[in-house]
Amino acid sequence: MFSMIRGPRAAFGTLIGQWRRGMMTTGNRRLCIKPQEGPSASPQTQRPGFKLPGYRPSDWDKKMLMWSGRFKTVEQIPEFVSFEMIDAARNRVRVKACYIMMGLTIFACLVMIVSGKKAVSRKESLIAINMEKKAKWREDAQREKEENALDAKAQ
Hints:
With about 160 residues, the chain is an all-alpha fold. The protein is built from four helices and no strands. It has helices at about 10-20, 60-65, 85-120, 125-155. Helix 2 packs across helix 3 (about 85-120). The model has no long low-confidence stretch (mean pLDDT about 80).
């Protein structure tokens, strides 16, 4: 019913709805109120500022750092590395994996093209192969039917 209302009535209804929800008055918005400062924490309870930012890489992360070419051996990798270094190594390995998959896909397509051309030169096709297979199935079914008929006569 409300979707059928158009024109100035809908605009007026929206205006009234906003006013009732308190959106029209700027005094009640409370968007720019600064938080009240409470008692400040003592310096002993704050965390020390000398902690090294970083990440302790797992064995898998170390392998990715090596595969990406960042380090040559596992012994060269420091105990803590930055998140950016791990992320860059993951991205580089991801891109290498994509390139490898693209290359394998192109190689597989070329192999299929070559095998298809060889099959055409041998006069092979999927239709002929399927027809031969179905003919063999029919022969097997006919043979089983005859064997069942002979067994029934023998009894």
